[in-house]
Design goal:
The protein is α/β, with parallel strands linked by helices and about 525 residues long. It folds into 3 domains: about 260 residues, Alpha-Beta Barrel (TIM Barrel), CATH 3.20.20; about 90 residues, no CATH class; about 55 residues, 2-Layer Sandwich (Double Stranded RNA Binding Domain), CATH 3.30.160. Helix content is about 40%, strand content about 20%. It is built from 17 helices and 16 strands. The strands form 4 sheets. Strands 1-2-3-4-5-6-7-8 form an 8-stranded parallel barrel, surrounded by 8 helices. Strand 1, helix 1 and strand 2 form a beta-alpha-beta unit. The two termini are about 50 Å apart. The model has no long low-confidence stretch (mean pLDDT about 90).
Length: about 525
């Protein structure tokens, strides 16, 4: 069986708090989704805002290779002729490939929200679909609040589906708009409907009960052949069903045919989170940074022998990769796996020494799970033959606040590079920035490649808060050059010292590269 995919990231997903897509953002996302292989891309509600109408206009000039560009909107308003409804004039102007038109299914909404009769609601649905079919659109009828409506009045809910089919709808999408259904309810209701209509059924679920993905998969199992959702589950309130979980589940677990290029799944997920300015969830199934991470030594040992022991699919199938995490819980298997990643050969003594050192360092507050650049440096520095790129003779940081309230920071640093002493001072926005500036200033005459390096993120975390302001802190620094990024770490009761450790590792790792 083939499963069609319908993405509503640009409409339903854009209703997420904190997301605001520009026109350029939307154009880029459409191209990315089309390249990924999504079958229908819902681009907005024509006429609801100038940006969406301009998007439809511009997309007509784009080379969309696969997807059907879809417009979204409501049925005609009550008690007016569909030909006089401005929304339908906007559909004609948008010239999309398909239109997803939603209407009320729950009699509660018909009476209390629309304040009309059940008969008029049926006429609104029929007139709207008939109009769109007259103008040669592919029409998806979106049965809003379907499951709540079916539970309240099953005969009326079924009548709506039959009305939509009779009016010419190409598909009917059953919506759990409030997101409160559970999988067994979805199964019961859809199983009773599969013979009600003779056109394809789709599913659109929200995540208010935490079951949007499970509900979508259950609907597919019961006969739905189109699944709606968003990339990364973006959406209003608790979000929509996450297509990055549903699509691989359908393909790998259910044996369904999908058009999406699953090896681009992680890339697509991360691209859209970047455009949306949202931090990716590390533990997101299939695509998360930690989705195929292994920390416990016994897990690592087993995965090294046979990945099926602790991985339900091969990470490469969704564009992800396995990560072996080194921590105080690590065994020799973790260290050996990371050493192979770093192209480091370890004998038994070196392996035992590094494992003991990692555990000691983590006991002191360091944590190497994310800071793999610091981990590689730790390994290399504890093998014979490693030479430091520079040695620190000492540093001083001065913070002053004058009578106007202005605060200034200055760092003075003394280093030695191959016997040459360099003494440098530099100002900064704060003490860490001043130290960073002074270190680079001192080293760039010896290592000009450091000019292309920049600090891109800086995090401080208290490690055990029992000591108050004397507590140990952990500093994590993300550094970037023209082609790569890496994470380094430091820990100390002194935040300046912890920052210095992480800064030095960041610079040394660049020089090591």
């Amino acid at each position: 069986m083939k499963l069609l995919t319908y993405d509503t990231t640009l409409r339903d997903g854009a209703q997420t708090e904190g997301i605001s897509f520009s026109l350029e953002d939307k154009l880029r996302i459409v191209q990315k989704l089309d390249d990924f292989g999504i079958d229908y891309i819902e681009c907005g509600w024509p006429g609801s805002n100038p940006k969406d109408m301009l998007l439809f206009s511009m997309l007509r000039e784009f080379d969309i290779k696969h997807a059907k560009i879809t417009a979204f909107g409501s049925t005609r308003r009550k008690d007016i002729n569909v030909y006089d409804d401005i929304n339908f004039k906007n559909f004609l102007e948008a010239k999309s490939d398909a239109v997803c038109i939603f209407g009320k299914t729950w009699d509660l909404h018909v009476k209390d929200a629309l304040r009309t009769t059940l008969a008029e609601n049926l006429a609104m649905i029929s007139d709207s679909i008939s109009f769109l079919k007259e103008h040669n659109f592919e029409v998806i009828y979106d049965a809003e609040h379907f499951f709540d409506g079916y539970k309240a009045n099953p005969l009326y809910a079924e009548k709506i589906l039959k009305t939509a089919e009779a009016a010419g709808a190409d598909q009917i999408c059953l919506c759990d708009t409030n997101g409160g259904m559970l999988p067994f309810e979805i199964e019961t209701i859809i199983s009773s409907l599969v013979n009600t209509v003779n056109i394809p059924l789709g599913i659109h679920t929200h995540n208010d009960a935490g079951t949007a993905v499970a509900n979508s998969i259950m609907a597919i199992k019961c006969g739905a052949t189109i699944v709606q959702g968003t990339i990364n589950g973006y959406g209003e309130r608790c979000g929509n069903a996450d297509l990055t979980s549903i699509i691989p589940a359908a393909a790998f677990k259910m044996g369904l045919v999908v058009n999406a290029d699953l090896k681009k799944l992680k890339e697509t997920s991360f691209y859209i989170s970047e455009v949306a300015n949202k931090v990716p969830h590390d533990n997101q199934p299939y695509v998360g940074y930690s989705a195929f991470s292994h920390k416990a030594g016994i897990h690592v040992s087993a995965v090294e022998r046979n990945s099926k022991t602790y991985e339900h699919i091969m990470p490469e199938e969704v564009g992800n990769k396995r990560r072996i995490v080194v921590s105080e819980l690590s065994g020799k298997s973790n260290i050996l796996a990371k050493a192979r990643d770093f192209n480091i050969d370890l004998d038994e003594k070196e392996l035992a020494d590094i494992l003991r050192l990692v555990k000691d360092k983590e006991n002191d507050g360091l944590q190497y799970e994310g800071a793999e650049a610091s981990l590689e440096l730790l390994m290399r520095k504890n093998l014979s033959g490693y030479q430091n790129f520079f040695d620190l003779e000492g540093f001083k940081v001065i913070i002053e606040k004058d009578d106007t309230g202005k605060i200034t920071s200055k760092a003075i640093i003394k280093i030695v590079v191959e016997g040459v002493e360099e003494h440098t001072a530099s100002n900064g926005a704060g003490p860490v920035n001043a130290l960073d500036n002074a270190l680079r200033k001192a080293l760039e005459k010896f290592y000009p490649q450091l000019k292309e390096v920049g600090l891109s993120d800086f995090k401080v975390r208290v490690v055990g808060s029992g000591g108050g302001t004397e507590s140990k802190v952990r500093v994590l620094i993300e550094t970037r050059d023209t082609s790569d990024e890496w994470l380094t770490i430091g820990a100390s009761e002194n935040v300046i010292e912890a920052s210095w450790q992480a800064l030095v590792d960041a610079v040394e790792y660049k020089l090591l590269k």
